[in-house]
Each structure stands twice: as structure tokens, then as C-alpha cells.
Amino acid sequence: MMKGAPVSWFYDTPDWVTLPAFVVLFVGGSVAIVIVLRPSVRRSVLDPAQWDRVLGYTSSTFGVFFGILLALVAVTVYGNYSDAHSAGLEETSQIGALYRGANALPAGLRDEVHESLRDYVRTVIHQDWPQQADGQVAVASTAKVDAIESRIYSFNPETLGQQAVYMRLLATFDGFVEARRARIDATTLQLPPLFWVVIWIGALINAILIAFIDVKAFRLHVMMAALLALFVGLVIFLTADMDHPYAGSIAVGPGDFERILQVIDR
């Protein structure tokens, strides 16, 4: 799921709207399947014992594989979210190290590097992050990285001590660039569309199998279908909300960059 796709409204709409709507539609669909299929099932069951035995085997086998799929998807999505957060944290750590490392540069050049880093962080917060939330590869801060690089590379160390400090500064800059690339690459992290196709087909099969249960009490049958659909729907909703690390209510925000900017400003 990505912003800019037909489901972009999903990330633009608050959870207090999308979550109840999703649950109502999901549960309502499952209950509707029970209501539609229940009469046919009641007429088709000639041997309840045999029917329950076959249905129990089928349901248990399906439940194992569908549960494994949902677990795999949830772990993958959370892993993507965690990677995106770790990339931002690593980038701010490298920015802090660059800021401190620049203190060893001559006064004029030091101030220029400091100001370039401050400008870069502001650009990430106010321009990169909105682009990432829209599912776009952030490019606004690219020019700021070039400015930092040009200032660092303009330094010409004259002593062995300066050379040692300069080499550490260059290594820190390389680490900063790598962390920035990881943060930007996380924008494209998402589940392959085929996974969502299989998930929705699995949810449909699950609702149909519940409707196949031969339950004499209609209210009890509907309640079983509704409760199971509620749980499966919540799992799918949570997975979809985390599928794009920088969008939705469960998203990686620019908090790490805002905190490093406060440190720099002090």
C-alpha cells in the first residue's frame, strides 16, 4: 500500500473514521455471508457427524496456514517499520557526530559546516518528511548534503593532527550518507501486492468456512462469525496501517530530527 495509489485515502483519513468503518464493513460482510449460505448449508447436511468431521479437518488446516500467513506478514511489516525508525535514528546520530567533529575545523569553516547541518535538518523535517509521507522519494535535502560535502572537502589539513581529525570527519560523513540513503530507501518499503491478494482471499475463505458450520441457533452462528471477523479485521487493519512506515497513524515521524535540531540550536 502506497500513497498516491487508489488507497491513499486510507492514510489521509483519521483512524477514528477508518477503523470503525473497516470493522463494520468487515464484520457486516462476514455476517452477510452467514445469512446467505446458512439455508443452503442446513439443507445440504444429511449426516451432521460426518459434516462436522470433514469441516473440522478443513477449518483446522486452513486456520494453521492462514495464521502463519498473517503472522509472517505482521512480522515483515513491523520489521520494515523498525528498520525505518532505526535508519532515522542512525542518521541523527551521524549528524550529531558531524557537528561535534566540525569543531576541530578552522573557525570560519566550522561555522559554515554547523549552519549547513542545521539547514539540512530543517529541510528534512519540513520538506523530506511530507514527501516520504506521500510515498515519494525525498529529494529536497539532496542539495543540502552537497553543500555539507563541499564545505568539508574544502578543508586542507596541514599537520598530522589535523589529518587524523579530518579522516575521522570524512568517515563520519560517509556514515551519514549511508544512513540517509537507508532512511530514504525505507520510503519504498511495503508488502508486495500479491500478499494482499492472498490475505483478502484468505479472509473470504475464513468467512465462508464459518458459514459452513451447522449451528442450529441463528444468533449464536452470527455471533461466532462476527467475533472472528472482528479479530481478523483488526489484524488486517493494523497490518495495513503499518505497511507504509512514514504514513498513517502508526508511522515513523521526524521526532529524532527535531530533537537533534534542539541540541544543535542550544
TrEMBL record:
Write down the InterPro entries for this protein, in alphabetical order: DUF4239 (IPR025333)
Which residues are listed as membrane-spanning? 16-37, 57-79, 194-213, 220-240
Protein name, per record: DUF4239 domain-containing protein
**Does the record bear Cell membrane in its keywords?**
no
Q: Does the keyword Iron-sulfur apply?
A: no
Give UniProt keywords alphabetically. Membrane, Transmembrane, Transmembrane helix
